[in-house]
Amino acid sequence: MTTRPTAELTADEARRIALRAQGLLGTPPYARRAGARGVLRHLGAVQLDTISVLARSHELVPYARLGAVGRKTVEDAYWTGAHAFEYWSHAACILPIEEWPHFAFRRRAYRNRPHWNHELPEGAYDQVIKQLRADGPLTATELGGAKKTNDWWDWSGTKVAVERALMYGEVVCVTRRGWKRVYDLAERAVPAQLLHDELDDTECVRRLVRQAGEALGVGTRADIADYHRLKGEQVDAVIADSGLVPVTVAGWGRPAWADPAALETPPRGRHRTTLLSPFDSLIWERARTERIFGFTHRLEAYVPKPKRVHGYFAMPVLAGGRLVGRVDPAREGRTLVAKQVTVDGGKAVPAVAQALVEAASWVDCTDVRVERVEAPELREPLVAELARLVA
């Protein structure tokens, strides 16, 4: 395959291409028409996580791109009608239903997997399928129990069986109820023309490589592989005929590929100023975030409290196409509490304040309180700017 670059990009051009590809520079084509469902279709994957501070991560992703879109509107975009399904992509993700055929390679891999962390009791799988066919949709608890003890990892045989069926593609999660998955048979939940469109592994991976490249705008082999957690050799086998084109990016020090459409016009338009979920696809890969933004990002929710540097759920602040700080938020009644704030100099104070006030309004908070600012001299300017914005 040829690896001769078709274009040479500066680091700044690559950054702006990535921002536009992620829907955070200019007006995305789906913004007015398709809303949150358009965000999902455009990104190809929205990561799920159990943590909810301001809101859950899958709500924060469309908020970052569309502004104060209603939270119920977001949930409906994912769960009303057969528009999306949950599956293992970058992690546990909501995926556009159109991508169902392209994850056939992963479903087959799970079916052929020799070892599992949880033992599947004899007869449990068939019983779950039988019960869903008769009574579904159902949660694991309604099927017979999610856990044997209070330990999160101590799954019941029923939970093991239904999760195995989800991985095999015989069962899908059709909605969330109190953050519990609600399962139904794929034959009822997935449109027939997609359910039976079983592509071979090469076709599946080729599509996902192309989709990752489009969502990233420009990326290295590792960036593209990470988007849907593909193996490097899988990417290598298909990238030459994926439709992506080889490019060089100044300072990256490694080959890269770009969506040809992203190279057709210079990325211009209005930048979003917003708080980002740590699980947002713009920043979910740490090495890429450092390379593009010069910003070290780490989720510290699972780090012991004394060892945290920036806080439990530190959310990077995007403004002017750059990451200019971070906020560890909490809610107390109708007050958004900025427990810990990092600001990249005085010039970034207005952007951080704007991001805080807009986020507060979105989650129906009427006040913002700042607790700690890592640069103490910036605390007073930040508080004053917040007061001006909420006055």
Tell me what the structure shows:
Strands 11-12-13-14-15 form a five-stranded mixed sheet, sandwiched between helices. With 391 residues, the chain is an alpha+beta fold. It starts with 6 loop residues before the first strand and ends with a helix. Helix 6 crosses helix 8 (157-168), helix 11 (201-216) crosses helix 13 and helix 12 packs across helix 13 (232-238). The chain contains 16 helices and 15 strands. Strand 3 (84-88) and strand 4 (92-96) form a beta hairpin.
pLDDT < 50 stretches: none
Strand content: 15-25%
| Rg on CA atoms, Å | 22 Å
Strand neighbour order, sheet with most strands: 11-12-13-14-15
Integer average pLDDT: 93
Count of β-strands: 15
* Helical residue percent band: 25-40%
Principal-axis shape: globular
Q: How many DSSP helices?
A: 16
Terminal CA distance reads 61 Å
Largest sheet: 5 strands, mixed
* Coarse structural class: alpha+beta
What is the compact description of this entry?
The protein has 16 helices and 15 strands. It is an alpha+beta fold. A hairpin with a 2-residue loop joins strand 6 (171-177) and strand 7.
How is the secondary structure organized here?
Elements: E1 7-9, H1 11-21, H2 35-43, E2 46-47, H3 57-66, H4 71-79, E3 84-88, E4 92-96, H5 104-111, H6 124-135, E5 138-139, H7 140-143, H8 157-168, E6 171-177, E7 180-185, H9 186-189, H10 192-195, H11 201-216, E8 218-220, H12 221-227, H13 232-238, E9 245-249, E10 256-258, E11 274-275, H14 286-293, E12 315-319, E13 322-332, E14 335-343, H15 349-362, E15 367-373, H16 379-390
Parallel strand pairs: 1-9, 14-15
Antiparallel strand pairs: 2-4, 3-4, 5-7, 6-7, 8-10, 9-10, 11-12, 12-13, 13-14
Helix pairs in contact: 2-3, 2-4, 6-8, 11-12, 11-13, 12-13, 15-16
